[in-house]
Amino acid sequence: MIKSELIAKLATENPHLTQKDVERVVGVIFDQMIEALEGGGRVELRGFGAFSVRSRPARGGRNPRTGDAVSVKAKHVPFFKSGKELRERLNADE
Questions:
Q1: Secondary structure (DSSP) of 31-76
Q2: How many CB atoms lie within 10 A of CB 22?
Q3: Are residues 91 and 75 in the same domain?
Q4: Which of 10, 27, 31, 72 is deepest in the core (most CB within 10 A)?
Q5: Are 22 and 67 part of one and the same domain?
Q6: How many domains does the chain have?
Q7: Which domain holds residue 9?
Q8: How high is the pLDDT of residue 94?
Q9: Radius of gyration over every alpha carbon of the chain, rounded to an integer in angstroms
Q10: Which SS3 state, helix, strand or coil, does residue 88 take?
Q11: For residue 79, is pLDDT > 70?
Q12: Are the C-beta atoms of 29 and 45 separated by less than 8 Å?
């Protein structure tokens, strides 16, 4: 599912809201999640999972085209850990 599909589904299920209103709400939610992660915080959605930020140290790498050694800078990456309810629903068929 992509963002536009999510907005369309929410607008269909909530006919009292306009498409623009739903789009604005989804945008605000995502913006707040991003701001929390930027500040080093954590975003937890009960039953779904938790988003956090992890640090990756600088390391050596290789250019795949030329094979030359390159240095890769340290960086922060988003990390998602699924919640118990999500894992259970995904594995319910097995």
A1: HHHHHHHHTT--EEETTTEEEEEEEE--EEEE-TTT--EEEE--EE
A2: 19
A3: yes
A4: 10
A5: no
A6: 2
A7: 1-39
A8: 62
A9: 19
A10: helix
A11: yes
A12: no
76: phi then psi, degrees, rounded to nearest 5: -105, 135
> Tell me: the pLDDT tens digits for 22-73?
999 999 999 999 999 999 999 999 999 999 999 999 999 999 999 999 999 9
Task: Indicate whether 1 pLDDT > 70.
Answer: yes
DSSP state of 26: H
pLDDT at 93: 74
Token pair listed for 85: 């309810």
33 dihedral zone (left: phi>0; alpha: psi -120 to 50; beta): alpha
Q: Quote the tokens at residue 51.
A: 């988003």
Q: How far apart are CA 94 and CA 29, in angstroms?
A: 34
